[in-house]
Write a structure and sequence with these properties.
The chain is 11% helix and 36% strand. The chain is mainly beta. A hairpin with a 4-residue loop joins strand 15 and strand 16. The longest helix is centred in the N-terminal third of the chain and has 32 residues. It is rod-shaped and about 140 Å long. The N and C termini lie far apart (163 Å). The N terminus is likely disordered.
Length: 301
Amino acid sequence: MIILKKQVNKLLILKTCVLLLFTLLNYSTVAFAQKPQPTIIFPNQSSIKIEMGEYYDPEARSDNTDGTPIEYASSNTKVAIPENGKIRIIGLGITIITATQAESTNFLAALPKDIKLTVQEEQFIIFPPIADKTICDIDFSANVTSTPSLYPIYTQNPITYTSSNPSVATISPLGQIHIVGPGTTTITANQKGNDEYIDAEPQSQQLKVLAVCFNINNTFTPNGDGINDLWNIPDLIAFPNCIMRVFNRSGQLVFQSKGYTQAWDGTNNGQQLPFGTYYYMLSLDDKASAKKMSGWVTIVR
């Protein structure tokens, strides 16, 4: 009987221990399940742009009420580094700022939260007004410049150009304007941004091209009286490589000259041409791309 009583007591003690262990485990599980995980937020921001030389305060918040600090890390330490709870900007470019918050007494560690930080410099286009041109004018520069970078280690995108009316003028990628014909066009300069630079504000200037670049007299009287005997075109002295051709009504070439240093006297191979209207074609240079003009001239005897 004594042995049986001891065995019963052992069973009761074992049962009590098992119940106590189960209670403790169940309490720990419930307590662990009730420990919340806070959420980090960046107020009203998923990405932000900022200029060089500034401090940025991410102002990250969470619902952890234990006062556990939020820590920051930067994916690109050439752009920004954490410093005293803020972000110090040290270069141009893009970095990802990650906010973390460690586990505390009443809260689990928060899930990390990222924000994209773009640090850029402004750039400005300087485009002076364009003076009126004529169809005789040769190619010229638009004289567009961009404000130099304060940080030359970074590369700015080139300035690009457009012409609203290519039948009046075109513009090359290097900013050289080529006159095509009379009229008005708007030349616009753009400079796109990149990771380091903000898009520049486009700048435009109007270009007016006049149809006449100089006066070409359309009548002369080669009668030997010393008055208006030659077809003088003084302005052609500025175009030493010009090509002048004159044709009669039948399309026959009656005069040709490279450069116009010797004015036409109304003859063809030394023979005086009769009274009448003749047609000219003028190229201001001997290149295929040179400006061309045409018109008529009358010989009066």
